[in-house]
Specification:
The protein has 292 residues and is an alpha/beta fold. It has helices at residues 36-46, 61-66, 71-79, 83-90, 110-116, 118-121, 142-153, 214-218, 231-238, 259-270, 277-291, and strands at residues 5-9, 30-31, 34-35, 51-56, 98-103, 126-129, 133-136, 156-162, 172-176, 183-191, 202-210, 244-248, 252-255. The radius of gyration is 20 Å and the shape is globular. The chain starts with a strand and ends with a helix.
Length: 292
């Protein structure tokens, strides 16, 4: 089976970035000149996804507007002869890629957000991408790398990376059969364990490819950690009947759900921006020298 659909859970309140997110979606916060959600969408499109499903809330209209056409803006750019900017705006969503939007009426967890999109997935495997996790995969995006594994195995694949012991309470943590390869079979998964209870140092990050069997378990998953329906808990049930693989991707992940991670990502992407890199490097060096 081929994966052509991806779910983007974007209904969260973004409380860690208040007051910036009081009126603007966290996913629309820019890393240099593109919003976080666009980076996630580009990851998906590069991996062959053609149907984008956004699980939104009433305060997230800006996301829908971003991926829609803006006639007034495009006409203004055309009349002013700004063809480069016009092309940039029109190419946000390539030909052949469609968007759908589903409302999550209240923030009840990642598992519930994925379940909200069930009717649009039908009986197909699908991807889930969290915009908070900005991943620079280099030549191949993280989801592209995962898609290669899925196409070879037809098994659910979850992205993982090594985390510090004191960070286990922030992640779902997997128990795997071996750590000597970048693709491992998952034996167990626990949501936000204490360092003493964590089965390994491999934490799940915001990229998943899942078989439709996950919906059966999501429909019967009670509220777990934080009083929310956790995708991790449903995956723990899924691996009892199907193979689930943990994939250690190549690339650098930035946790843009935290302020520090967001700043790290901004600096890293500015330092490789084709228009800004050289000048920004000079500014950064001067700033470091002034504050040393």
């Amino acid at each position: 089976m081929k994966v052509t659909k991806a779910i983007f859970p974007v209904a969260g309140l973004g409380t860690r970035f208040l007051p910036a997110t009081k009126a603007n979606p966290k996913e629309m916060m820019p890393i240099v000149d593109k919003p976080l959600i666009q980076y996630a969408v580009e990851d998906a499109i590069a991996a062959g996804i053609t149907e984008l499903i956004f699980v939104t809330s009433s305060s997230k209209r800006a996301i829908e507007d971003h991926f829609d056409s803006n006639f007034e803006l495009e006409l203004n750019l055309l009349e002013r002869g700004k063809q480069d900017l016009l092309t940039l705006v029109q190419d946000i969503l390539p030909e052949g890629v469609s968007c759908a939007y589903v409302r999550q009426k209240s923030p009840r967890g990642l598992g519930h957000a994925v379940l909200c999109a069930k009717q649009l997935i039908s009986n197909e495997p699908f991807a889930v991408l969290l915009a908070d996790d900005l991943i620079d995969g280099g030549e191949k995006t993280c989801l592209q790398q995962m898609m290669t594994v899925f196409n070879q195995t037809q098994a659910s694949v979850i992205a993982v990376e090594s985390i510090a012991p004191h960070e286990t309470k922030k992640y779902g943590v997997v128990d795997v059969n071996t750590k000597n390869t970048n693709v491992c079979t998952v034996r167990g998964i626990v949501e936000k364990p204490s360092p003493l209870e964590a089965p390994s140092d491999l934490g799940v990050v915001g990229r998943y490819i899942l078989t439709p069997s996950i919906f059966t378990f999501l429909e019967n998953t009670a509220a777990g950690s934080g009083g929310e329906i956790q995708l991790t808990d449903a995956i723990a049930k899924l691996l009892e009947i199907e193979t689930v693989l943990a994939f250690q991707f190549q690339g650098k992940r930035f946790d843009c759900g935290s302020k520090l991670g967001y700043l790290q990502a901004t600096i890293a992407y500015a330092l490789k921006h084709p228009e800004l890199a050289d000048d920004f490097q000079v500014i950064l060096r001067e700033f470091i020298e002034c504050t040393a």
